[in-house]
Specification:
This protein has 17 helices and 2 strands. The chain is mainly alpha-helical. The protein has 3 domains: 83 residues, no CATH class; 104 residues, Helix Hairpins; 121 residues, Serum Albumin, Chain A, Domain 1. About 1% of the residues have low confidence.
C-alpha cells in the first residue's frame, strides 16, 4: 500500500477449502503463502500491521490503520455464498481436530469404570442371591472365583465336589431349578463383563502409551489415562501447573477446605500410584508433590510432541526424590499436625 492506494494484491484461490485452510493458518498465527510472496517482492523496510507478520517486516505504528479489504471481497470474486461455505468447512475441520485421540481415551476410561461398576454390582447380587442356597461359599473362595464356580458348577453339591469338600454342613435352603438357571446366567454375564473390562484395559493401555509415552512411563497407563480424563484433554493437562495436577480428583475435598476450613487435601488421583498409597502418612504429601511435578513435565512434553524419551529420566528422578523423602523421615510440622501417638496401654480398672 502507498497511503490509501493499493499497490499490489495477492488474491486467495476462489475455492472454499483453500479459503478455509488459510483461515486455519490465521488462527494459528502463521504466515499465509500470499503474504510470503508479497514480502519477497516488497522493498526493504516493509511495515506490517499484525504481530504474526513480524517475520517479514517491522510493526507499523498504531495510527496507520490498514485498509479493510475483507469487506470488499465481492470485488475480487468472493461472493457471500463462497465465504459462507468456507466458514462452514473451517468450522467442520475445527470440530474434527477437537475430537482427537485424547477424547477417545476419555471415553475409554469411563467405559472401563462402568464395566467394573456393572461387574461389581452383579457380583454383589449374585453373592446375596446364591447365598440363600450356599452361604458358606463366600468364606471358602475368593471373590474373583465366586462367579466362575457358580457358572460352571451351579448346585451346592457340584461345587463341593469340585472343591473336594463333600459332606460339608450348610445352613442354606433348597434352590429351584429355574432359580439355579437364572443364577448361572447371571454368573456368566459377570464373567463376560470381567473379560470385556480386561480387554478394555489392554486397549486403553496401548492407546495412552501411543498418545502420551512420557506420562505413561512416569505414572503407568491406567493412572495416566485417568489424569487425561480428569483434565479433559492432554493439551489442557499440559497447561496445568503441578499444584493443580497434584489435586486432580480431590475437588470436593478442596472445596470443603476453602468453604468450611477443613484440612487441605494432599493428593487426588495420584494416590493410586504405588509410591504414594504405600508411603507413610507423613510422606504422602511430599511424594505426591514430587510425582505431580514429574507428571506435569511429562504431559507437557507429550502435548508438544517433540520428545518421547523423557519418561525414563523423569521416573528415575521421581524415585530418587521419593527415596530421599522416606530416608529424611517426618518433619516437625507433620508430627505436630498428626499429634502424639495414642496411649494404647490398657488401664487398670478402677476400684468400686
Amino acid at each position: 500500500m502507498d497511503g490509501e492506494k493499493v499497490v499490489e494484491v495477492e488474491v486467495f484461490p476462489r475455492e472454499a477449502r483453500e479459503v478455509a485452510r488459510r483461515l486455519e493458518l490465521l488462527q494459528q498465527g502463521e504466515l499465509l503463502p500470499e503474504e510470503r510472496r508479497l514480502a519477497q517482492r516488497a522493498p526493504a523496510g516493509v511495515l506490517v500491521t499484525e504481530r504474526r507478520q513480524l517475520k517479514v517486516g517491522s510493526l507499523a505504528p498504531p495510527e496507520s490503520a490498514p485498509v479493510d479489504l475483507a469487506s470488499r471481497g465481492a470485488e475480487f470474486g468472493f461472493t457471500p455464498a463462497l465465504r459462507r461455505e468456507a466458514f462452514e468447512v473451517a468450522a467442520r475441520a475445527a470440530v474434527a481436530r477437537a475430537r482427537g485421540p485424547d477424547l477417545a481415551i476419555v471415553q475409554a476410561v469411563r467405559a472401563f469404570d462402568e464395566l467394573q461398576e456393572s461387574e461389581n454390582r452383579l457380583n454383589e447380587r449374585l453373592r446375596e442371591w446364591y447365598g440363600l442356597h450356599f452361604p458358606e461359599l463366600a468364606r471358602l473362595v475368593a471373590t474373583e472365583k465366586y462367579a466362575a464356580l457358580v457358572a460352571s458348577g451351579g448346585s451346592r453339591e457340584a461345587i463341593l465336589e469340585g472343591l473336594g469338600l463333600q459332606g460339608l454342613p450348610t445352613s442354606g435352603s433348597a434352590l429351584a431349578a429355574t432359580d439355579l438357571e437364572r443364577l448361572q446366567t447371571l454368573a456368566q454375564t459377570s464373567l463376560r463383563l470381567r473379560a470385556e473390562a480386561e480387554g478394555q484395559a489392554g486397549a486403553l493401555a496401548a492407546a495412552v502409551r501411543a498418545l502420551a509415552p512420557n506420562l505413561t512411563e512416569v505414572l503407568g497407563p491406567l493412572l495416566a489415562a485417568r489424569l487425561i480424563e480428569s483434565a479433559g484433554t492432554l493439551q489442557r493437562l499440559g497447561r496445568m501447573p503441578s499444584s493443580t495436577v497434584q489435586l486432580l480428583g480431590a475437588e470436593r475435598a478442596l472445596f470443603r477446605h476453602l468453604k468450611q476450613g477443613k484440612k487441605p487435601p494432599k493428593h487426588g488421583l495420584l494416590f493410586q500410584h504405588p509410591a504414594v498409597h504405600t508411603a507413610p502418612y507423613w510422606a504422602r504429601g511430599r511424594i505426591s508433590r514430587a510425582l505431580a511435578g514429574k507428571a506435569t513435565i511429562a504431559a507437557r512434553a507429550d502435548a508438544v510432541g517433540r520428545r518421547a524419551d523423557l519418561g525414563a529420566e523423569l521416573k528415575a528422578g521421581f524415585e530418587k526424590r521419593a527415596a530421599h523423602v522416606l530416608k529424611q523421615g517426618p518433619t516437625r510440622k507433620s508430627r505436630e499436625r498428626r499429634g502424639p501417638p495414642p496411649n494404647r496401654a490398657r488401664q487398670a480398672p478402677r476400684r468400686p
